[in-house]
Amino acid sequence: MSEIESRVRIVVVLPEAFAGGLAPVRDSCRTLDALARLGSEASVEPAASLEAAAAEVRNADLLVLDGSPPAAASGALEAARAARVPAVAVVADSGDADAVAWFRLGVADCVAEEGGALEALPAAALEQIRRGRDTRQRRSVERRLAWLENLNTTIVNEIPAALAVLDTERKVVATNPAFGRAFGTGVRGRPLAELLSADLWESADFGTLLDRVAAGEAPAPTIARGHGSDGRAVVFDVRGQRLDDAGRLLVVLADVTEREMLARRITDLQRYNENIIQNLNSALLVVDTEGAVTFANAMAAEILGEPGGVLRGRSVWDWFSTAHVQGGLLARTLAEGSRFRGAETMLARADGRAIPVGISCAPLVDADGTRLGAVAIFQDLTEITLLQRQVLQTEKMASIGQLAAGVAHEINNPMGFIHANLFQMAEYLGDVRRLWTQVGDVRKAAGSSDAPALARATETLEELARELDAEYVLTDFDKAIRESQEGAERIRHIVRDLRDFSRQDRDERVAADVNQCLDSTANIVWSMMKHSVVLRKRYGDLPRIRCNPMQLKQVFMNLLVNAYQAIETRLAGTGERGEIDLVSELRGDRLVIEVSDTGCGIAPDQLDRIFDPFFTTKEVGVGVGLGLSTSFSIVQKHGGTLRARNRNGHGATFELILPLTPSEEVVAGEAG
Amino acid sequence: MSGSPPTVLFVDDEARILSALQRSLRREGYRILTAQTPAAALRLVDEEPVDVIVSDQKMPGMSGLALLAEVVRRRPSARRLLITGWPEEIPPEQVEALGIRAVLSKPWDERELKEILRKETGTGT
Fold first, then answer.
1. Which residues of A make CB contacts under 8 Å with B?
2. Homologous superfamily, domain B7-120
C-alpha cells in the first residue's frame, strides 16, 4: 500500500499468545492476512507472549491485539501507552462487550470482523500509525522547547553579566540576578539612566548607544568606567541588542573591573620591570643561543662603550672574547646551560679600552625547558678594582710601617760599622798620603843621584812606616773595606726585600712555591722579632700552585706580624722569649699553612670578629684594622679559607687552607 | 790608671761592630776586649779587670740594660756605657738607677766616643 511512507513495525498479539504461546490457529491467520495487505513496508511481528509484546512494543509503531480477554492484555497496553504507541483491537462485533472493555483499557480503535474478513483493519492500522507518529513528534518538539526554555532561564540567571530588557522609553522591563546585584533589585519600570551612576552612563555614552541599538545597528562593545552602587571604581563591557519589533532592547553589562585591573597590573609590572632594567646600575644583556643580543639595557650600552648604538642582533663576542676564560664560561652557559656568578673578566669596549667587569650568567629557558639563550648581568669594576688595590696597598704599607722599626735596626748595625769604618779609612788614607809624600822625597833624591840624601829620605820613609804601622794600616784598610762592603751588601738586601714587598702588585697569578713565599716573608719579619721570638719552621713538600705570590706574602706577613705583636703584648719586658711555629703541609688536595704563636691569644668573644674590616684590638697607630680582613679576602680570592683558634695554654693558631686546583671563579678572577 | 793600660770591654751581637770599634780605638792605647753575647761579657767581667764596659742594648736573650744591671752586681767599679740605635727608648730613670755614664747613639760619633772613653778611663783631659 502506497500510503505507508516509511517502514513501520507492527507488533501483533494473537489469541494463542493469550493462551500461553500455542501454535497459530486459522482464526489468527485472518488478522495476519489483513495486515499483510499493508505491503512489504510493514513488518508484522506476532508476539510469542503478552510479556514479549510488552517488551517489543516500545520500538513499534502499532500494537494489534486479537482475541480475548482484554484484561489479560493490560500490561502490554500499559507499555504501549508509555511509549505513545497506539493499539488496535480486533473484536468479533464492534458493539460487543469486548470492544467496550478494550476501549476502557485505552486502545485507539476496535476493528470488527465482517463476513469472516478484517477488511477495515489495514486502514484503521494505518490511521493509528499516523496519529501515533504525530503524537510522538509533537511530544519531542515540546520536550525540546522545554529544554531550551530551561537553558535560557539558567543562562540568564547564572550569567555573571548584568542583563536588562528595556522598553522603548529605556525603562527596565526585566533584569537578571546579576543586574540586581550590580544595580539593585525591584527596578522594573525605572529608566536605566537612573540606575547607573552618572559617570558610568556618560563614559559609555549610553544614550547614543541605546539609540543606535534601537535603530537596529550593531555597535561595537563599549567600555564604561565609573562608580558602582557601592562607590567603588568599576569597569563594564557594554553591549546592546534590539530584541523584537516592539523596539525592546537587551542591554548586557559585563563587569570587567578585575580583568581591567589585571591588565593594568600587567602593564604596570611591565613598566616597572622596564624601569628597573633600564635604570639598573648593572648592565643586562640577553642573548640567543648563537650569542646574538636580543635585549640590552641602557647600562649595557654604556659599559660596552656603545651609547645610543643598536646592540640588538650584535654578537656578544664583539665584546667578550671567547679566548678568555670568562668568554669560555659564557660560551658554556650558552652551550650547556650552566650558570656562574660573580666571575671577573675583561671586556673589550667599542672604543678599544679594556675594562674589568664582574659578570653573572644564567641560561634563559622557556616554560618547556628549551634553552633560548642566556642572560648576562655585569658591572664595571674599574673603580672597585682600583679601590681594592688601594686598600690592599694601604694595608701593606701599614704592615711595612710596623716592620720599619725592625728593619731600621737591621740597617742601623751595618750603618754603624760602615760609618765608623769610613771615619777610620779616612785616617788610613791620611797615613797613606804621608807615606806617599815621603816616597816622593825618596824619588827626588834618587833622581838627583845624591846618595846621602837618598839614604836620609829612605830612612825617614822607613821611620814613618814604622811609626804609622804601615803594614797594619794596609791590611786593616783592606779589611775595613771588605767589612764595609759586606755591610753595604746587607743593607742592599734589606732594602731590596722591602722594596719587593712594598711594590704595587699587578694582580698576576703564576705558578709559585708557597714555601718560598712563606720563608722570604719570615726573613723580612725576622729582623723585627729576632730578639724576642724563637721561630721554628717546618715546611712540608708542597707542589707549586697558581697564585698571586705578592698577595700571599702579604697574608703571611700579616699573620707573622700579628703573632709577633701578640707575643710582645704578653711577654714584653719579662725577658721571656715567645715562640712562633710556621708549618706547611700537603693534606689531600689542599695546602695547609699554620702560624702559631705563644702570645696573648684572642678573646673568645672576638674570635668571630677578627676578620671584620676595621676591627682592631691594637692601639691607635699600631694597626688600621684591615690586616686580617684583607688577608681573608686575599685567601678567599684564592679559593681558600682562613681560620683562627686559640691554643691550649697561650697564644693562637691561624690556619690557612689553599686548594691545589683553585676553583674556576678564582682562575677566572685573575683578569681583574 | 797607672801601669797597665785601661781595659775596655765592648759587647755587641754584631761582630762587625766590634771590629769597627776596635779599629777606631786602636791608637787610643786601651786594652780592648770584645764579647758577642751577654753571657760571654759576664764571664770577662768576672775574669778580667774591666774598667769600662760599653754594651749594645738590643741583643738576643738579654738586653744591654739587663746586662749592665748584672755588671753593677758583679763589678760595680766598672764604668758602664750603653750604645743603642734608639737612645730615646731608654728610660732615663733606669739610666740613673744603673749609674750608666752615657747613652751613645748608633751609628756613633768617633770623636764623642773617644772623648767619653778618655774621660771614663781617666786617660784624657
1. 408-409, 412-421, 423-424, 476, 479-480, 483, 486-487, 530-531, 575, 577
2. Response regulator (3.40.50.2300)
